């Protein structure tokens, strides 16, 4: 219950004020003239003013509501270091027990961790959502149990939004030692085959075990490529050459020390994207034919391709005695291309080539050596491949996986995917290839060959090889046993994926990682680790996973489609994951590659102290689970809310108003009678 006096004037305030002034003037006159009955007239005027003011007593029916205290327990990844999690658990249980003793206090406990996306620790975002249904004036206090490494601290008390003491209890040893590696400068893109420079620095917190140079290991796609040394606090640089297009995972790891809090921040990752400067292709056409323009259009359509096209229009047997200076044809620089500058090309294509003595045998030997040292050759065979002037009757026979049988099949057929072709990434996902028969147009010529080695991905009539891929030394070779792929490009009988097939074949020849038939890859998103294993085998062993924390686990893979095995794993750890299986390694990060969570892991109140002090809260520290948290007290508004060993929670004395009753102090009739009686009494006294 609550009582108060209120007024509900019968006249507007202005008129009531003028009337009060008039009554005051008359009262002053009565007193100045010392009239015997003045006091009664003054009482009558006062009663009149009171009647017009209409005073009443207000009775309020109130329901007291408890104040709200919020206990926030940090569960982020850095709280798993030392014995922080156990200390926080013990402290939270003690505080919950002590705060629950106050009947006028409603305790809420929340467990908050990583920010959305895993980038840092977010406590204040959770505080705002947890107290969204509570009026700010009901909040008695907030307690944080954290290591102090919080990444969403408001910049001011106004931005905080709560006029309540914020008490900070830091968990862990503020004097602990830790070392971390920071990448200061790294490119987002780089040219394949050219070095990129990365600047890094090693930082140390706490008492350093020494000032000796620290060993730093450089890894590229999980493989060690270099070792360097760096002194703590000094900026260092390393260079690494990007080996392929797409994402290149570069990892720098500093040697650990036994006294460190964690080794997870000893490494940092950058993922520059490799870009091919220009793809140089040498296209050698043995003779003009219907498919020659298809090759040229396909290669010239890509602005990243530098095409050198060599077509043999005047073989030696066509010599007719015409002087060289009268010929309109340009002599092709065969010596420069096939001897001096051969290694500058990324891919060499022989399209329906016939031996005519234009290219000396030694040039073919150069090409075979070029492939063995890492080059790529693609051949599209026509009828000459089956004859005595076949390309196979050159030193290239040592690198070609299929040799001609001497016959040519001339009949309509639909190219089909072989069992290997349904697994190989070059052909596995070609549009129309999964149906039987395939939903694409026919070809009408196949050069019969005997396959010596390599993988047959496509076949023709009676299962004869149509497309064969093979590795030779450090290089690669692809053979098409037909020259009629141009029928698909022209849309014959609905056409087919000719451009996609040739593009994938060319990229496989140039070792594009996404087209490797034996490939392990991984990706991470929203707390989920996805593993993909592509293989030509019918089965694959489990994948070994190394977590950012160093823990290891083996996960079985399930076949999703021919040659493609997958696994999915739920995880709450952020950072870099390493997956190993069958001699292959894949790296991926869940959350940022270099998470804020591990940038600083030593306990500190530096970030939270300004806000806690501004709100009137206290700063405390706990190191071991056995340490007791500060005592809790209830304090009235305006009093101190913290001490050296205690934290205060303010009594806001909030309530809900259920009902209001107004009781008038003066009855109109009784007041009129009393006022008339006073006037009559004054007249009677005055008449005597």
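Q: What amino acid sequence fits the structure above?
A:
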């Amino acid at each position: 219950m609550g009582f108060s006096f209120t007024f509900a004037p019968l006249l507007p305030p202005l008129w009531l004020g003028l009337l009060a002034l008039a009554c005051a003037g008359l009262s002053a006159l009565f007193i100045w003239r010392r009239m015997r009955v003045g006091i009664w007239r003054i009482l009558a005027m006062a009663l009149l003013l009171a009647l017009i003011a209409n005073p009443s007593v207000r009775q309020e029916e109130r329901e007291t509501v408890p104040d709200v205290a919020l206990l926030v327990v940090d569960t982020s990844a850095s709280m798993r270091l030392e014995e922080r999690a156990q200390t926080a658990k013990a402290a939270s249980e003690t505080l919950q027990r002590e705060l629950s003793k106050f009947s006028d206090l409603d305790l809420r406990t929340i467990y908050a961790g990583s920010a959305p996306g895993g980038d840092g620790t977010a406590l204040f975002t959770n505080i705002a959502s947890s107290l969204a249904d509570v009026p700010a004036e009901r909040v008695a206090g907030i307690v944080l149990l954290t290591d102090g490494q919080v990444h969403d601290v408001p910049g001011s008390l106004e931005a905080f939004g709560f006029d309540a003491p914020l008490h900070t209890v830091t968990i862990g040893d503020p004097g602990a030692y830790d070392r971390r590696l920071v990448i200061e400068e790294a490119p987002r893109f780089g040219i394949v085959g050219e070095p990129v420079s990365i600047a890094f620095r090693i930082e140390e917190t706490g008492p350093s075990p020494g000032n000796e140079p620290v060993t730093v290991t450089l890894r590229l796609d999980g493989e060690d490529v270099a070792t360097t040394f760096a002194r703590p606090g000094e900026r260092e640089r390393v260079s690494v050459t990007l080996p392929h297009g797409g994402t290149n995972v570069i990892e720098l790891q500093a040697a650990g020390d036994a006294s460190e809090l964690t080794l997870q921040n000893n490494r940092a990752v950058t993922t520059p994207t490799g870009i091919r400067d220009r793809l140089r292709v040498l296209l050698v056409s043995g003779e003009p034919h219907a498919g020659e323009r298809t090759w040229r259009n396909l290669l010239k359509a890509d602005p990243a391709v530098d095409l050198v096209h060599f077509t043999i229009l005047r073989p030696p047997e066509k010599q007719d005695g015409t002087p060289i200076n009268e010929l309109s044809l340009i002599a092709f620089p065969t010596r420069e291309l096939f001897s001096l500058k051969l290694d500058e090309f990324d891919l060499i294509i022989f399209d329906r080539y016939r031996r005519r003595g234009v290219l000396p045998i030694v040039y073919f030997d150069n090409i075979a050596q070029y492939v063995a040292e890492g080059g790529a050759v693609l051949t599209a065979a026509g009828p000459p491949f089956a004859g005595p002037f076949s390309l196979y009757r050159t030193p290239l026979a040592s690198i070609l996986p299929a040799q001609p049988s001497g016959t040519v099949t001339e009949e309509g057929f639909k190219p089909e995917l072989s069992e290997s072709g349904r697994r190989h990434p070059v052909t596995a996902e070609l549009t129309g290839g999964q149906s039987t028969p395939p939903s694409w147009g026919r070809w009408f010529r196949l050069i019969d060959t005997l396959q010596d080695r390599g993988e047959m991905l496509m076949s023709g009539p009676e299962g004869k090889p149509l497309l064969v891929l093979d590795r030779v030394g450090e290089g690669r070779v692809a053979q098409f046993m037909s020259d009629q792929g141009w029928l698909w490009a022209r849309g014959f009988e609905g056409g087919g994926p000719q451009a996609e097939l040739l593009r994938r074949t060319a990229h496989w020849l140039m070792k594009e990682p996404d087209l490797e038939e034996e490939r392990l890859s991984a990706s991470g998103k929203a707390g989920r680790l996805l593993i993909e294993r592509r293989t030509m085998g019918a089965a694959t062993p489990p994948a070994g996973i190394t977590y950012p924390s160093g823990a290891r686990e083996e996960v079985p893979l399930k076949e999703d489609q021919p040659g493609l095995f997958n696994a999915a794993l739920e995880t709450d750890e952020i950072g870099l994951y390493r997956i190993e299986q069958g001699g292959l390694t894949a790296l991926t990060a869940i959350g940022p590659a270099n998470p804020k969570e591990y940038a600083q892991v030593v306990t500190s109140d530096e970030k939270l102290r300004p806000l806690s002090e501004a709100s009137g809260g206290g700063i405390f520290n706990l190191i071991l689970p056995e340490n007791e948290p500060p005592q809790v007290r209830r304090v009235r508004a305006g009093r101190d809310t913290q001490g050296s060993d205690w934290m205060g929670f303010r009594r806001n004395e909030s309530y809900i108003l259920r009902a209001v009753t107004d009781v008038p102090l003066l009855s109109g009739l009784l007041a009129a009678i009393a006022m008339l009686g006073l006037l009559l009494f004054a007249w009677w006294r005055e008449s005597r």
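Q: And what stands out in the fold?
A: The mean pLDDT is 84.
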